[in-house]
Amino acid sequence: SSNLSSNERTFLAVKPDGVQRKLVGEIVRRFEKRGFKLVGLKLASEDVLREHYWDLRNKPFFSRLISYMSSGPVVAMVWQGLDVVKTARKMLGETNPADSLPGTIRGDFCVEVGKNVIHGSDSMESAMKEISLWFGQNELHRWESCSTSWIY
Ligand code: UDP
Ligand code: MG
């Protein structure tokens, strides 16, 4: 059935290590196959990183985090679908890859918290903030997926 919640959106970013390690295709594949809809995608650079991680500015790892995230392009994405914020976090795994179960992205592709391959919004509120920080309205696409009626 159709559901208003299927308009929920989240912000994901393949971090520089994920791009270097050629994980972009694998990560996009997982979200496509799960049934989510891609509505925004681009290679992006570092200019919004400090604002993106503003809540963590007083953490001891903050400057390391900013230089890690600035070490190459990231692939910024917006995905849409029912409960996508929470489901994407489950698909990512835990912040520390050592706590992430096999089958999750971090549980399958990395070992260290400082190089954990992917970002995902932690709440609907963060998602809205992050999407408007990283993407202009004209970079987000409205389109009808032909598989919608087989997913909802
Ligand atoms: N991070 C780190 N050391 C820590 C905690 C976090 O290097 O002890 C990095 C890690 O890359 C993480 C990012 O900072 O993904 C943002 O931290 P957050 O707590 O928001 O984790 P996330 O939401 O990415 O799981
Ligand atoms: Mg976070």
Automatic annotation (TrEMBL):
SUPFAM superfamilies: Nucleoside diphosphate kinase, NDK. It is found in: Cell projection, Lamellipodium; Cell projection, Ruffle; Cytoplasm; Nucleus. The keyword Phosphoprotein does not apply. Residues 7-142 form the Nucleoside diphosphate kinase-like domain. GO terms for cellular component: cytoplasm; lamellipodium; nucleus; ruffle. Its EC number is 2.7.4.6. Pfam families: NDK. One of its GO terms (biological process) is GTP biosynthetic process. ATP binds at K15, F61, R89, T95, R106, N116. One of its GO terms (molecular function) is metal ion binding. It catalyses: a ribonucleoside 5'-diphosphate + ATP = a ribonucleoside 5'-triphosphate + ADP; a 2'-deoxyribonucleoside 5'-diphosphate + ATP = a 2'-deoxyribonucleoside 5'-triphosphate + ADP. Signal peptide: none annotated. The active site is at H119. Keywords: ATP-binding, Cell cycle, Cell projection, Cytoplasm, Kinase, Magnesium, Metal-binding, Nucleotide-binding, Nucleus, Transferase. SMART domains: NDK. Its cofactor is Mg(2+). Major role in the synthesis of nucleoside triphosphates other than ATP. Belongs to the NDK family. This is Nucleoside diphosphate kinase.
